[in-house]
Amino acid sequence: MRLDIEFIIYASLLIVCLLPLYIYRKKIFSSSKPQKGDFDAFLKDLKIHMKTNHPKIDIDYSIIEKTKNESNLTFRETFIIEKVVEQFFNFEYNKKTQPSVPRDKLWVNYDEKSIPSAKLPSDWQQRKELASRRDNKCCNRCGCNLPSLNETYTTFVKDIKDGGSYTLENIIILCIDCNKVLNSTNPKNTMDSLILNDKLLHLIKTK
Ligand SMILES: [Zn+2]
Known about the structure:
Blueprint: H1 2-23, H2 25-30, H3 36-53, H4 62-66, H5 73-90, H6 110-114, H7 124-134, E1 153-156, E2 171-174, H8 176-182, H9 187-193, H10 195-205
Antiparallel strand pairs: 1-2
């Protein structure tokens, strides 16, 4: 009799443990094996993402053809992403003098506070905001949208330490990734740390 109760308890436990496996069997056994259709969808998403979010960066997609013999599609997708991020990083960008803003949009003391100094001028936030509006809240390097001023970075056409001023013509606005690229001292580390990298890898996972 005692054996029977133990048997029932163990049998019930076993069923409880195996139940999730039965319920989620489809998910468990069919995951991580991308199909051809998924791969095409991935390529489409990748191209749309780059064109929409980083319109100024020209991407050469010949890597897709070059990897056609790779049968592991996840590996192939990861490799393609690596090459796209690499191109984002290596994109040749030259800092150019930025458009002026009409004088009536400026304020008293604007000129004297534009003079180069080690410390940012007290009206820096105002300058940053005006530069952002002038550029339609777009990163100067990649063209991505920068709705929030807190996530907007800046650089100078001519560095302040080289005698560059705080005038609007010298202020360039950048996204977080382009700012990282321009200040990079270790390309591999920078590429791995880019938000772009995470976003593109996400295209694989969310298929
Ligand atoms: Zn950018």
